[in-house]
Amino acid sequence: MSSGARHPLDNPALGSLTGPHAHFAEHRGRVMRYPVDVSPWLALPDEPDADDWADLAALVGPGEELGLPAFDGGIPDGWDVTFSLDGVQLVDDGLATAPEPEAVRLGPADVPEMLDLVERTRPGPFLPRTVELGTYLGIRRNGALIAMAGERLHPPGWTEISAVCTDPDFRGEGLATRLTLAVAHGIRARGETPFLHAAAGNTTAIRLYEAMGFRLRRRTRFVGARVPELLGDRQTLGVA
């Protein structure tokens, strides 16, 4: 057992769904998740027990895949791990934030273009209602969306910057940096602190974020798992 309260960023999905994003939360017992068209991430308690894993399985459904962000625990026996990605968590440590004059606020009407840009650039999970999680800013050229960045997880006092991407034809202009600093500017204006996650193997992006003024807070993992097909027996769930 921990001797004190954990940092909000140690379990950011739980902090979000019990805090500023509570209106999105779908519950079963102590397990929470976002609606499936908003975000793939679920939240377990800091120290999940057998009942929590059983509730998670029932909430998601037999044979369905789930995602756990910044997850440092183990998956029960009998569950299929579908992905396990080493990641880093970076926090604001002196960002030179500033508004971006070329940026426009993106909303539901822009989602088809946002989904198309995400499909071509693969910045991470972005679903039809992800735009509802916070502010999303984009840059357009000749009417076409060519770059964007926005907000995702939102533990109390913190906001994650996510979906940072640029059309390959427009890379090298610093658009991602400008949008990241603009989103961070809005987060700071609310009295909160920006943070973000990146794949540990994406050293180019990590160096760029560190040059901007982010610092490494911790290393972590993003994990996907498939719920067992049979839910009627705890032995089947691997949580006896």
From TrEMBL:
Keywords: Acyltransferase, Transferase. InterPro entries: Acyl_CoA_acyltransferase, GCN5-like_dom, GNAT_dom, YpeA/RimI_acetyltransf. Residues 101-233 form the N-acetyltransferase domain. The keyword Acyltransferase applies. The keyword Transferase applies. This is GNAT family N-acetyltransferase.
